[in-house]
Amino acid sequence: MAVVIREIVGFRQDEAGDWIADLACLHRQHIRHQPPFSERPWVLDPAARAARIGTGWDCPLCDRAELPEGLHLVRTAGPFDDVTLPPGLRATHHVAAARWGRLRLLDGAVGFSMDTDPPIVRHMVAGDEQPIPPEVPHRLTVDGPVRLVVEFFARDD
Question: Domains in the chain and their CATH numbers?
């Protein structure tokens, strides 16, 4: 699997004046020029920084499926059981751009896998939750009777 690369959609500065990249996945990452540890002189130049908008950046937070801060619940799908679970959720699928999902298992057990680096592969049981980054392929395997919901989150800004 490849690392999750996200588009840079903008930049902002924190209280200390360090630059933060806003990523399409809704995460925010500091991008610093701190020689010799990180050589990123482009971040200090407004034109060079603007030229990076639309380019890709590795997002380790997506690889770890860490929900970004500041999201709000926009929709809940389900509850579904092993009979009503839509076929699309049983096949490889993904959450839409600029949205995060969270699988919540209410009863039963499912297998879950996601194409992050390293891949996330888990056996989930009742009470387990799994955040799901936007546009990352993932799949469910139902192990018998089950009841689950999928919640979708977004950011206002």
Answer: 5-63 (no CATH), 72-154 (2.60.120.10)
